[in-house]
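In this section we walk through a basic example: taking a raw amino acid sequence and producing a predicted 3D structure, encoded as discrete structure tokens. The instruction is simple. Fold the sequence below.
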Amino acid sequence: MAHESRILGADAAGIAAAVAILRAGDLVAVPTETVYGLAARADDGAAVAGIYAAKGRPSFNPLIVHVADVAMAQTLALFPPLARSLAARFWPGPLTLVLPRRADAPVASLVTAGLDTIALRCPAHPVMQALVRAVGPLAAPSANASGRISPTRAAHVLASLPGVPVIDAGPCAAGVESTIVAVDADGWRLLRPGAVAVEDVAAVAGAPLAAVGPVIPSAAGPVVQAPGMLASHYAPAQPVRLGAATAGRHEFHIGFGAVAGDANLSASGDLAEAAARLFDLLHLAEASGRAGIAVAPVPRHGLGLAINDRLARAAAPRP
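The resulting token sequence is shown next.
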């Protein structure tokens, strides 16, 4: 099978091969605890441009830079005390901090999309940690065509990004992208809900200053402060209908809790299980051949906030 030549093992040999590819300025799809990422050296402008080209990603959409620890992060960004507190609590893990970029930060300008801030995350996955420690900071958005369903398995990457090698470490544990918060001297703002519940961030950082809604592209071009903020994103090919307790015969029904559906995010109503299965089931629904996708109601608290955010963007009008 042609795909086999693109699969690297999640072992010492596979990691060494990926390190060589990244050092040479090429791309590798890598596992993290959230979703699979499409990685390139953050200091290599041509490599970062390759991410945008492979994904068909709008150049105004900044990228998350993955670091090994706070010490590496501090070479790229200024850390207000609140950012240090959040990193101490949630790193390594699925929290991205948008911070003031250091003027001398060794990152390609494409990474930050011209902004004076930079989005940083310290991943918990051992494979991604090994790569960052060997190569240095890695820019890595989700390893899929821009705007499409995020990949939580190597097979999703193989189907979406022809020609990109991928380290196969099995399914992602969290299954939904990182929570993104912007931190400055005045406090914090939620930019994207994700795998760390907003309530948990607030327990450390206090109430947020404000939340920022989705960005709708305009002729002038939107100012996107963080990845995943476009109004239409994570989208399958078919139209998506939300809050659906029942579905039409032409629709693939994604259930939750007592709403069984054709496939269920979590029959027991467990939001962590639902988050881990969300993109898997959207991929399954897209491949079903049905004309539409209907999704049962999901509660809007804890990880349900991130699930509903992704579903709203999947259902939004396409640009």
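Looking at the output, two observations stand out. Confidence is low (pLDDT under 50) at residues 213-224. The radius of gyration is 19 Å. In the next section we compare this with other chains.
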